[in-house]
Amino acid sequence: MLTEEKTSADQIQAYDRLSELKAFDETKSGVKGLVDAGITKVPRIFIHPPELLDRNNNIIPPKNTQFTFPVIDLDGLEKDPVRHQKIIEEIRGAAESWGFFQVINHGIPESDMEEMINGVRDFFEQDDDVKKQYYTRDATKRVVYNSNFDLYTGKAAGWRDSMYILVAPNPPLPQELPEVCSKILMDYSKKSMELGCTSLKLLAEGLGLNPNHLLDMDSAEGLAMICHYYPPCPEPDVTIGAGKHSDNSFLTLLLQDNLGGLQVLHQGHWVDVPPRPGALVINIGDFVQVMSNDKFKSIEHRVLANRGESPRISVASFFTTGPRPSSKLYGPIDEILSDENRPKYRSFTVKEYTDHFRAKGLDGTSPLLHFKI
Fold first, then answer.
1. Cβ–Cβ under 8 Å, residues 293 and 332
2. Are 43 and 24 in contact (CB under 8 A)?
3. 3-state secondary structure string, 150-172?
4. How far is Cα 347 from Cα 332, in angstroms, rounded to an integer?
5. Rounded to whole angstroms, how far apart are CA atoms 97 and 220?
6. Contact predicate 163/131, CB 8 Å
7. Most CB contacts within 10 A, which of 8, 40, 230, 253?
8. Strand ordering across the sheet containing 161-168
9. Band of residue 13 on the pLDDT scale cut at 50, 70, 90
10. Across the beta sheet with 269-272, what order do the strands follow?
11. How far apart are the two ends of the chain, measured CA to CA in Å?
12. Is CATH 2.60.120.330 correct for 18-58+70-371?
């Protein structure tokens, strides 16, 4: 018995996390590769401490608590001035209280959304030898496929694989993109850019500014699309799809399939974002929270590990500045500040923020704490 205990202790002590991370990374097969291999237990590198899973915190809404996730109908936005103003008010309210909302009648055909979901599925489920040519951790590449951008810096890995595509300001050539989804990637990204610019104009108006104010600050100069593939998980209670985080963007536009799993931290409770046919999810990014001096909220959210039998697929379009380093500083917008509304953040460059975000990883704390005055 003593020998068995000693062996067990030695095994625990001998756990070399870095070696296991490298071994997983070097397969270039991601989490899907583990599932395809038929594993029945989640490897240690994916097991999250209870505090990161919030299993010890009573933050799931009580049964008698009802939250209605905001849904905003954009129909009539361009044709009816009264309707236009009502939409601004609805978006302002959602941005202040939730930081998230869904939009319907947004101009992107549902058929394009379905084709985009199918294209992402086709990429991740194609032959490994074809897919692996895109596997890299070089963030300067136009197309990056890997598992967990913060694999080596996070406390535990998430149960997901991802493909990152930088589509603006300089779109990749068709031959640079995966053949199985090249056309729909470019078609959908153009329509996402249009909707993102419209949303940023409405947010600027919600702040009492000129509609182009946020756009003139390069908030939609860059567009990065991240396509996530969340395979079924054999032990969904010990890991998570994506840990608690806010977005390192000005604005994020999310297309999700019908499986669910996205949760928003609202009033101290994790609230499900219900999949809605034809709807897209929009959320405020960290930069708009700073620029609005906390009027609009970049809310923390997460994705649960997939309990189903089919993969969950989502496509997040992040509106950012361009990829080239810039000396431009971002902070609270002067026009909305006053003696009663003093700046809450110091100014910083996008590079300074991004370097801090990447070094920190998805550790459950907001990167904005680093920039608070």
1. yes
2. yes
3. CCCCCCCCCCCEEEEEEEECCCC
4. 8
5. 24
6. no
7. 230
8. 71-73, 100-104, 280-284, 251-256, 312-320, 222-230, 161-168, 143-146
9. very low
10. 240-245, 301-304, 262-266, 269-272
11. 57
12. yes
Q: Are 231 and 31 in contact (CB under 8 A)?
A: yes
Q: Where are the alpha helices (DSSP H) in the chain?
A: 2-13, 17-27, 30-36, 50-53, 81-97, 110-124, 128-131, 182-206, 286-291, 350-360
User: What count of Cα atoms within 13 Å lies in the side-chain half-sphere of residue 69?
Assistant: 21
Structure tokens at 30: 């991601």
Confidence of residue 10 (pLDDT cuts 50, 70, 90): very low
Measured distance CA(222)–CA(287) in Å, rounded: 14
Residue 132 carries which side chain, given as an amino acid letter?
A: K
Look at residue 11 in the predicted model and tell me its pLDDT: 44
Residue 112, judged by CB atoms within 10 A of its CB (0-12, 13-18, 19+), counts as middle
Instruction: Find, among 271, 265, 24, 14, the residue nearest to 154 by Cα.
Output: 24
Burial of 114 (0-12, 13-18, 19+ CB in 10 A): middle
Tell me how far apart the alpha carbons of residues 48 and 157 are, in angstroms, rounded to a whole number.
Answer: 8
Q: Is 306 helix (H, G, I), strand (E, B) or coil?
A: strand
Identify how many contiguous H helices and E strands the chain contains and give both numbers: 10, 12
Report d(CA 86, CA 68) in Å as an integer.
Answer: 19
Residue that is written with structure tokens 């032990």 in the block? 235
Length of the chain: 373
Residues 6+ positions from 147 with CB-CB distance below 8 Å:
24, 25, 30, 31, 157, 160, 161, 162
Give the model confidence (pLDDT) of 257-306 as tens digits: 999 999 999 998 899 999 999 999 999 999 999 999 999 999 999 999 99
Judge whether 112 and 190 are in contact, CB under 8 Å. Answer: no
Sign of the C-alpha dihedral, residues 237, 227, 131, 135?
negative
